[in-house]
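yo

u said u wanted the structure for the complex thing, so here. seqs first:
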Amino acid sequence: NSGIVCLLRPLLLDVVPSIRQTAALALGRLADYDVELAEAIVKAGILPQLICSLPEENRYYKKAAAFALRGIAKHSLQLAQAVVQCGALEMLVICLEDFDPGVKEGASWALGYVARHNAELSQAVVDAGAVPLLVLCIQEPEIALKRIAASTLSDISKHSPELAQTVVDAGAIAHLAQMILNPDAKLKRQVLSALSQIAKHSVDLAELMVEAEIFPVVLTCLKDSDEYVKKNGATLIREIAKHTPELSQFIVNSGGVAAVIDCIGSCKGTVRLPGIMTLGYVAAHSENLSMAVIVSKGISPLCDCLIEEHEDHIKAAAAWALGQIGRHTAEHARHVAVANVLPTLLDIFVDTRSSEDLKMKASRFVTKKALKNILQRCTYLPALEPLLHEAPHNIMKHVIGQFSKVLPHDSKARRLFVTSGGLKKVQEIKAEPGSLLQEYINTINNCYPEEIVR
Amino acid sequence: YFYIFRAIDEDRKTKYIAALKIQRWFRACRVRAYLRHLSKMATLIQKWWRGYLRRKNFREVVERAYFIRKLKFYNEMAVRIQKMWRGYYVRKYIHNFYALKKYLEAVSVNNELVRSELQEYAEMKENEEKMKDLEKKEKEKKYQARKMHYLLSTEQIPGIYNSPFRKSPDPMELLLRKSKPLTHRKQKTESSFADELYDWPTCKKPPAFVRALPLLPADRQKPQGPFRDPAEVLRQRYKPLEPTLRVRESMNSPPAKAREATGREEWRSPIHDNEFLPFSSYHKKAEKYEPSLCKSGKYGREAYGTKHFREVHPKKWIAERDFETLFSSIVLFEK
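structre next:
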């Protein structure tokens, strides 16, 4: 391998331009294919020679050189840093100013791969003055160039709020917002991901997004035929919704919740995840918003997710979202309980108890919290009945607590409780005297005359 | 006698002692009465003094108690008012149940709207897709028909699609009748216009698709005359550009930049003021005035246009005189 690299090096300095081009193209393909080859290229110190004469070369050479740099930078952080250290960024920025769209595409792709790894590398890219040129690239008519420029902007802005602010200051949001209407699916993916990376950092950026009037348009993206467009659209809405209640309110008012719910219903798999989290964030802010989510028929898709999905993190997310919906007041908990979701949650909780995997533990923790939150408000007794029979000890505490709150006041419920065998079950539970559980049991027992208790 | 005296003495002693007792007792009673009296007096004085003090402070005490009772009453009333107000306010503005209900209804209505719009949008997209597919199929069919044009039925022989047992010909037959026969041409390679433009200066041969000059319509009038060989014409037309060294070097290269610097110097401070000295005959020609054709007559300037404005043609007059106008004419235009 190193033999090839040494042989290619003098060809890069040849007089004939097409030999130079082909040598650069060969280097690019080698670097693209394998990490070790890329490292060998970097170690052999070819990079300075590759880029020293870049401004005077013709466009094929520039394209090939940009391709080579991209192939090297994409593998790992150290290689990208090596690329930056030999001063490739200024050359790439010069390439971005070229007229040919192919050259611009190659240069912005290379910049995108460099910026992807790390915040410092992104900062280096921004310092080289790439961002205004990228915003100009987005306005070009060629679709491939737009795609790559959008993905580069998304990679730059994902690391930190300052970088996102730099991208916004260059006026990227207006252009990106216009491009949401473009019919090309891959372009929409990149644009939506760029917008969501910008919006996720702070409230001001999210508000800027909203002011750019993306709102009714983004909802059409949620109905697109391409799965990833839907996913990225849902991610964008999630990033906006999670900051403040006002933004969530705005999303609810513009009908975003309905669109997200439909989107969840129509997809399968990881694509649903951002939509689920959106619902969770919206419901978490206040009880009015969570009531709005319930009214928009949000609970049933979440239940379906819980039941159908096999992936652990999606189940955990659905459980968390349900917990956020149900935890506010008794009404909310009743709506959640009516959907017959509590046994499913319990199953997940009990089911994953035996495994030792870390991810399982996370989902177990989340389900437990969700269950606890819902149960603390739930006064809908028919839903609590089945839990009484199956629940483990720490959940049982909450269930019985709820019974002890409701039963003293409601006579019909008391009758039901006895006939369904709940009282018998309660007697069978052993609790330490003086514990909270014992108090609850005593309260329940006090509601009934002595003979029945016996 | 001793016994009498002793008896009298003892008597006297007992009487003395008794008298002492009585006196002692009496004095003690007196002292006790006096002490009792004293303490009664003291109590009396204290009683009167205390009553006096209390009577002095009585007003204040009563006022204070009254004030406290009033305050408690007012506080109670205030609590009642605040309780009512707070309940009203919260129910009306903060946790307004009806507003919440209306809001949720509005949200659900809006959601329905959004859902229906999105549904329409999705349907529209699907329709577009279907239309595109249909069009593609149509195109395919037409192309096939053009290729298989020879299957068309003639007067003598019915074609495949035009069986005599059918009542009306097959739709394929109709398509065949409509379509023009396809001649097989070599596929044109589509190169983008921009590429061609860029490629032109650096390529060494003419663009690949041009093998011959484009075909002209068959029924036009053929121009007359000897024609050059098409290959020669092509060679001349697509002769590659061989720019001079000066043009070929890029604008950004160091020698060009250096030349730019000297160029600027020269522009700023030229040695000669008139760089191009005039040639004498050129100037003579340039300095002569050529009058405009409208105003110049055969022998110099015409009087018409400056001296007089009206034309007079006596040969055209019917009578001896010109037209007589009703009004007097404008003085300026008279001679």
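The mean pLDDT of chain B is 79. The longest strand of chain B covers residues 296-297.
cya
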